[in-house]
């Protein structure tokens, strides 16, 4: 039987996180609060790095890119999810699904790669301090950051082309709260084995390659820490790298549970809960983790507040 392609007319219906009205209202309030805090927290990091000359270092350059990524990442999906929670249902056209899913995938892939670059930056700073200034000069910083953005975009484009070359036939229901492209394959009418192999290969490249760089970098950093004689040196290194490790553990742990784990073992309801972690929770925790015990950020905030108080005095 010929499969009719419904995506050009009716699009997709998102089942969301819950169908109960009271739960939808509660989730709307929680998600809206988290969204505003995420934007404000990451925007604060961007502003501080931009205006404070002492933060014009490679580590904070990459941190400002991470903050920009998190704002864009959470904005790509959460406002639409909030609208769906108010309406009680979610309907997306095929174009809307491509834009939402493709943007989220591009930004998520870029963040995976950028976290690997940040680990490499810490490795150079701690294990090769004499080479650090030349190896991580301004040109290299921009090259690494731009490469992450470009590769993330290309991964998204390849995924979109691979998925939407298939025919889709009813039911057009997606058991998710946003249009995550990988899960559209369950609605395809034809054989998706080859496409799934390609997407698995992309996932391995985007997730496991930077994760391997992170493991290598921090194994070298730990070895350097054990060779240090100074307790103050131990504390400084741990305080510098601990926040990055916390972000990596949360982000990669949730991403791997969906994109690296065999598809047959995944549960749609569990996938939605895991997606909340890497799409909503992680972008909120990033500014908290990176600023809570960061003395440089604290110093920059105090400097800005003192400057503002001085300017307001008659």
Automatic annotation (TrEMBL):
Source organism of this protein record: Pseudonaja textilis (Eastern brown snake)
Name the gene that codes for it.
Answer: LOC113453898
Spell out the SUPFAM superfamilies in the cross-references. Answer: Family A G protein-coupled receptor-like
Lineage of the organism: Eukaryota, Metazoa, Chordata, Craniata, Vertebrata
Any one of the GO CC terms: plasma membrane
One protein family per Pfam: 7tm_4
Q: What protein family does this chain belong to?
A: Belongs to the G-protein coupled receptor 1 family.
A molecular function GO annotation: olfactory receptor activity
Segments passing through the bilayer:
25-48, 60-78, 98-121, 142-168, 202-225, 237-260, 275-292
Localization per Swiss-Prot or TrEMBL: Cell membrane
Look up the signal peptide feature and give its range: none
In the bilayer, the protein is annotated as: Multi-pass membrane protein
Q: Which domain of life is it from?
A: Eukaryota
Query: Where in the numbering of this chain does the G-protein coupled receptors family 1 profile domain appear?
Result: 41-290
Alphabetized, the UniProt keywords read: Cell membrane, G-protein coupled receptor, Glycoprotein, Membrane, Olfaction, Receptor, Sensory transduction, Transducer, Transmembrane, Transmembrane helix
User: Which InterPro entries does the UniProt entry name for this protein?
Assistant: GPCR_Rhodpsn (IPR000276), GPCR_Rhodpsn_7TM (IPR017452), Olfact_rcpt (IPR000725)
The protein depicted here goes by the name Olfactory receptor
């Amino acid at each position: 039987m010929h499969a009719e392609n419904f995506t050009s007319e009716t699009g997709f219906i998102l089942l969301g996180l819950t169908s109960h009205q009271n739960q939808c209202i509660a989730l709307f309030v929680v998600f809206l609060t988290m969204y505003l805090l995420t934007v404000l927290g990451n925007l604060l990091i961007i502003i501080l790095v931009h205006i404070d000359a002492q933060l014009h270092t490679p580590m904070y350059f990459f941190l400002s890119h991470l903050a920009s990524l998190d704002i864009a990442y959470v904005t790509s999906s959460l406002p639409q999810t909030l609208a769906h929670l108010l309406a009680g249902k979610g309907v997306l056209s095929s174009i809307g699904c491509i834009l939402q899913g493709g943007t989220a995938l591009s930004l998520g892939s870029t963040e995976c790669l950028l976290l690997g670059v940040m680990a490499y930056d810490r490795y150079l700073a701690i294990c090769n301090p004499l080479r650090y200034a030349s190896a991580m000069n301004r040109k290299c910083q921009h090259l690494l950051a731009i490469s992450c953005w470009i590769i993330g975009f290309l991964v998204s484009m390849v995924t979109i082309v691979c998925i939407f070359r298939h025919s889709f036939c009813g039911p057009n229901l997606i058991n998710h709260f946003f249009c995550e492209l990988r899960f559209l394959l369950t609605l395809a009418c034809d054989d998706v084995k080859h496409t799934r192999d390609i997407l698995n290969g992309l996932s391995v490249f985007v997730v496991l390659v930077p994760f391997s760089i992170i493991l290598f970098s921090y194994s070298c950093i730990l070895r350097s820490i054990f060779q240090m004689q100074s307790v103050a040196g131990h504390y400084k290194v741990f305080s510098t790298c601990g926040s990055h490790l916390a972000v990596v553990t949360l982000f990669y742990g949730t991403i791997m549970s969906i994109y690296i784990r065999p598809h047959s073992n995944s549960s749609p309801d569990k996938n939605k809960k895991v997606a909340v972690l890497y799409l909503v929770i992680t972008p909120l925790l990033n500014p908290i983790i990176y600023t809570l015990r960061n003395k440089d950020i604290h110093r920059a905030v105090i400097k800005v507040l003192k400057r503002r108080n001085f300017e307001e005095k008659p």
